[in-house]
Amino acid sequence: MSVDGKTAIEVRGLAKRFGDVEAVAGIDFEVGEGELFGFLGPNGAGKSTTINILIGLARSNAGTIRIGGIDCSANPKAAQHLMGVVPDESNLYPELTGFENLCFCGALYGMAKGNRTARARELLDRFGLAEAGGRKFGGYSKGMKRKLTIAAGIIHSPPILFMDEPTTGIDVASARQIRQLIAELNRGGTTIFLTTHYIEEAERLCQRIAFIVKGRIVRTDTVQDLMRRTDGRHAVLFAVNKGAARLCESIAAQFPGLQCHAVADAAVRIESREPIRIGPLVRSMEDSGAEVTEARKLQPSLEDVFVEITGIEAGVMKQEREKARMGGGA
Amino acid sequence: MKAWIAFWSILAKDFRAYYLKPPNISWGIIFPLAWTGMFFIRSGAGLDSVPALLPGVIAVSILFGTTSLLSVTVTFEKKGRSFERLLLAPIPLEVLMLAKTAGAILFGVANAFVPVAMAAFLMDFSGVNWAALIPAIVLIAVSSTFLGLFIAISVSEVFEAQTFSNFFRFPMLFLCGLFFPIAQLPAWLRPLSYVLPLTYGADVLHGAILRPPHLPLVLDFGLLAAFCAALFALSLRNIRRKWIT
What we know:
The structure holds two protein chains of two kinds. By secondary structure, chain A is of the alpha/beta class. A six-stranded mixed sheet of chain A has the order 6-7-8-3-9-10, with helices on both faces. A four-stranded antiparallel sheet of chain A has the order 2-1-4-5, covered by helices on one side. Chain A has helices spanning 47-55, 76-82, 98-108, 113-126, 142-153, 172-187, 199-205, 223-228, 244-254, 278-287, 302-310, 314-326; strands spanning 7-18, 21-32, 36-40, 62-67, 70-71, 83-86, 160-164, 191-196, 208-213, 216-222, 234-240, 259-263, 267-272, 292-297. In chain A, helix 3 (98-108) packs across helix 4 (113-126) and helix 3 (98-108) runs parallel beside helix 5. By secondary structure, chain B is mainly α. Chain B contains ten helices and no strands. In chain B, helix 3 (50-79) runs parallel beside helix 6 (130-154). The mean pLDDT of chain B is 89. The A-B interface holds A 55-59, 77-78, 80-81, 85, 87, 89, 91-96, 100, 103-105, 107-112, 152 and B 1-3, 5-6, 8-10, 13, 16-17, 80-82, 84-92, 244-245.
């Protein structure tokens, strides 16, 4: 679990209620030092509530949290010194420049003037914002704002970093850059607790992932072990010229052990617990009057695992996220 | 030591971001000027009325300057979520909120000296008890700022902060004895006057500029300090209850 066996974040029996709603229902997990841990779930699953409790912006109704060995209920401010936070919104001060924002955030952690100005310059360089450092934050693009918000989260070189949806709502190039920065930070030894709606992002970056649904962690495992779970399943995608739905009906009748799904009108996805023999299927489809132009074995993805475990389509998560952003929600 | 680095940085940032902005500076000067002019013209008693008007104008300038700016800046930062950055800082909430309010207190004190500076051309200051006047100005600024903080925590929108502020400010102005002696108020209103912090500040201001105070100075200062402590403690309690839920 951990790079050297030590625990950076330890959560036991964490619970939170809002009136009758059980937002977090007694969850347990650990994050090892130097680990990049993903926390995935749909809107309303309890991700934000959990992260808010961990960073000290909310109180739990039950359970214990230890950050870097410090009991957060007994000494929350000491624990806050060990952590950096990148919130889901770029919440720096619009009227201050990028450089001033970083220096201000350094001062909040008690950094002396010389240290914080040197570190601010270093981070502006590292994040490709050196030229924009003298401009007001309010005039930055979304991608630049996200990068500066991440820089502000690590100005005091925290050993543990909480990142809430770091790439949501920004362009592809900036998101890619930010993912590289996250990976670099983790390679440098920073423990990262990452929540995201983008399953492919978690798959690419995280070493371990917890899936949370309706306030409960339904599974926690390494990405490799999660993927292994789907190894027993086989899937083949056939590209056809027409009538995918009709072909599915015909295949279902002829091959009872196979599951067939029409993907639009021109593709058929076949799934099975047993290895799939392609020849008889192609012949069957051609006998039904279809022309098969391609047959491709599908590799299992974390998205498949997520769908299987949570019963929620991954696309739904993305749509929920975008809807929430359009409505101004988090 | 580390908490003080954060304290000074928050104070300096607020001054740069809010209090030293040209609209606020001009408001800080024009507002007391307008009140002074209005009361001066309304009284019609010529220059003799200046000493009688000065305590009221000082109090109004502090009260409006502090409550308006603090409640707006805190509400604005809370809405934009930049206030979360402050709550995440590893410093005690007490130090954090003192830093956040220190700018408004200084702004209020500066506002108070605008009418004093103007009155210096119109009245004789030789009889003024500065040893009472200056601490009174500071304590009125502190209590008004903490009242602004209490208001800011109770609302979520900037316009609500202004509306809710007026709910406190205007009754306080008319009941604290600045413009109408408390003895001339209807008997059922008088008890209300004595639960307002400005009543004790106004008594010291009158005492320092015009006539002996009604209450002993020690009592006035003690009660003003108690109001400051109570408003600050109540505000911290509300922050813990409402913002760290």
